[in-house]
Amino acid sequence: MAGPSEHLLDALVAIVADRGLEGVSIRQVADRAGVSIGAVQHHFPTKNALLLAAMEHVSTRFRAELQQRLSAAPSPGGALRILALLLAGADGAPRASTVVWLSFAAHAAVDEQVAEVHRREWASLERFLADLVAAGAPHRTDPAGDAAALLALLDGLAVAVALEPQRMPPARAERLVDAWLAGLDAG
Amino acid sequence: MAGPSEHLLDALVAIVADRGLEGVSIRQVADRAGVSIGAVQHHFPTKNALLLAAMEHVSTRFRAELQQRLSAAPSPGGALRILALLLAGADGAPRASTVVWLSFAAHAAVDEQVAEVHRREWASLERFLADLVAAGAPHRTDPAGDAAALLALLDGLAVAVALEPQRMPPARAERLVDAWLAGLDAG
DNA sequence: TTGACGACAATACGATCGTATGGCTACGGT
DNA sequence: ACCGTAGCCATACGATCGTATTGTCGTCAA
């Protein structure tokens, strides 16, 4: 299932997770994957192509894991909570995932191709959240607005959980997410 | 008022704003500031020291601008809205500021010294927001929780405004902020 | 007057970077 | 049997990096 290309992409993601994007070099990726520089160059012509492929890779992985987790959701409301906790980096979501997308996001501010992938993913995420809101809380008048606010909240929480674990431990992030979801029905 | 050191820090911040942290090198900073490599080394012994000083520099600048903007606030509620719109990158806040702190945040995930400065600033921000909430909406039972949620929302909105201007134009961010603030009184 | 020192500039060093190049091996089609 | 090509490695090239070293001016205390 996992070819040599995916192995390289996993190596890159692992490097980003613990040394940041600045720690990524063709040589480091090759080392981590246990192959030569030439092998990396064979599968991806440039570093940029490797980076873009890695972004698509983490997106694909995320969608797969999401689908699996949501298969156990009893209702749209339950699915919304599962997705929210996952995105917020609350219990169950590894810090590494947040660090990776945070690194990509920062790079997106400077690289148009990376920005395009980021925009596509986040737009898709907002649509998905909006659908869950519309299905789980049909009385809401602006599910798209609710989804956009929720997505922003979750992004901010994820960063806080990853960078400030003592100010924002996962349990607090979970409480805040639940409070916001409760506001969906009340407010 | 602005000595040669501040000039170097401004140069670094300008580089981060339009090429990211990866565009920062001693040589680039020296070039942008119109001095030699040696001058940079004279004021800051290492690149890391320069980076840390730049973070403190943007913090100081931010506090100064904030204090100036808040001096025109009629009430705690008004001050809260001004600060929220500023942090969210809504109309009036430049994209560059968001890109700079986003870059620093991503770097904080990998550099403990940068992380410490980041934590200090964000903790201070949450406290300040909590005070404004407590003053402007005294009936709230958990102003610290409100502040933490608001701060996360604003961080997420700022990133969205900076990276996805068509999904999250400043006006939409402003509407979402206002909706959240309205929920302070209702929910 | 001299001499130390602060504020730079110029240059050098070793490391690492992305990428190009050329060769080797194994295999699949003709 | 043979040729091409996919897959991979070793190595080289030029650029850029952070930092160390050394020198050159002023200014100002003694």
Structure overview:
The first copy, chain A, is mostly helical and 187 residues long. The first copy, chain A, contains 9 helices and no strands. Chain A has 2 domains: 1-56, Arc Repressor Mutant, subunit A (Orthogonal Bundle), CATH 1.10.10.60; 73-186, Tetracycline Repressor, domain 2 (Orthogonal Bundle), CATH 1.10.357.10. In chain A, helix 1 crosses helix 6, helix 5 (76-88) packs antiparallel against helix 7 and helix 5 (76-88) runs antiparallel to helix 9 (170-186). The radius of gyration of chain A is 18 Å and the shape is elongated. The mean pLDDT of chain A is 96. The interface between A and B is large, with 47 and 47 residues. Chain A binds a DNA duplex (30 and 30 nucleotides) through residues 4, 25-27, 35-39, 41-43, 45-47.
Task: Assign the CATH superfamily of the largest domain in chain A.
Answer: Tetracycline Repressor, domain 2
Whole-number total of structural domains of chain A: 2
State the CATH architecture of the largest domain in chain A. Answer: Orthogonal Bundle
Q: What global shape of chain A is seen? A: elongated
| Number of helical stretches of at least 4 residues of chain A | 9
Order of helices and strands of chain A: HHHHHHHHH
CATH class of the largest domain in chain A: Mainly Alpha
| Number of separate strands of chain A | 0
Tell me the distance between the termini of chain A.
Answer: 47 Å
Major β-sheet annotation of chain A: none
- CA-atom Rg of chain A in angstroms: 18 Å
Oligomer: homodimer
User: Which fold name fills CATH's third level, the topology of the largest domain in chain A?
Assistant: Tetracycline Repressor, domain 2
Largest interface: A-B, 47 and 47 residues
Structural class of chain A: mainly alpha
Helical content band of chain A:
over 70%
Kindly state the mean pLDDT of chain A as a whole number? 96
- In the predicted model, the low-confidence regions of chain A spanning at least 5 consecutive residues are none
Strand content of chain A: under 5%
